[in-house]
């Protein structure tokens, strides 16, 4: 895996960040969960999914018996966008070589949320149409199984999103991390 230089200036996101947010968990896992972009807590701690969304994700994973440390967790970009806005295409493109190095050779990649699904799959329609479907993404010429699902924060507002995310985590545990 390649990581950005600690003084990375490949895009404008570097101007406002506190920390680079690099992958955590089992860096050799066959499963990678990819979030959208770091939030405030992630920026402060330099780790993905440590804020409210992380609490929701942890609880759902715990409910299905999936230990967070068994998967790798990362984001499409490594720096927090200002005002938690969606990353711009050029920002995602700047981080794509790092993300691709994290995804290459994995059994399955799970896209957590609309922005991650758009960046990795190119899909821009309603999430309900693709949640928990099996797709394939190109990772530097390699086809990798991709499962789109809801971002944990979607579970705050939509009960069915929580059930779908829980189903995703159960499927990951049963099929890819028995």
Written account of the structure:
By secondary structure, this protein is an alpha/beta fold. Helices cover 36% and strands 16% of the residues. The chain contains 6 helices and 6 strands; from the N terminus they run E-E-H-H-E-H-E-H-E-E-H-H. The chain has a 6-stranded mixed β-sheet. The mean pLDDT is 96.
Summary keywords:
6 helices, globular, 6 strands, six-stranded mixed beta sheet, 178 residues, single chain, alpha/beta
Brief account:
By secondary structure, the protein is an alpha/beta fold. The protein contains six helices and six strands, in the order ββααβαβαββαα.
Poorly predicted runs are none
- Name the quaternary structure: single chain
Strand composition percent: 15-25%
Distinct helical segment count = 6
Strand order of the largest sheet: 1-3-2-4-6-5
**Average pLDDT level:** 96
Distance between the termini: 25 Å
How many strand elements?
6
Major beta-sheet overview: 6 strands, mixed
Q: Globular, elongated, flat, extended or rod-shaped: what is the shape?
A: globular
Coarse structural class: alpha/beta
Q: Give the % helix.
A: 25-40%
SSE pattern, N- to C-terminal: EEHHEHEHEEHH
Q: For the CA atoms, what is the radius of gyration?
A: 15 Å
List the helices and strands and how they pair.
Blueprint lengths: L23 E2 L5 E5 L4 H6 L6 H13 L7 E4 L13 H15 L4 E5 L1 H8 L13 E5 L2 E8 L4 H4 L1 H18 L2
Parallel strand pairs: 2-3, 2-4, 4-6
Antiparallel strand pairs: 1-3, 5-6
Helix pairs in contact: 2-6
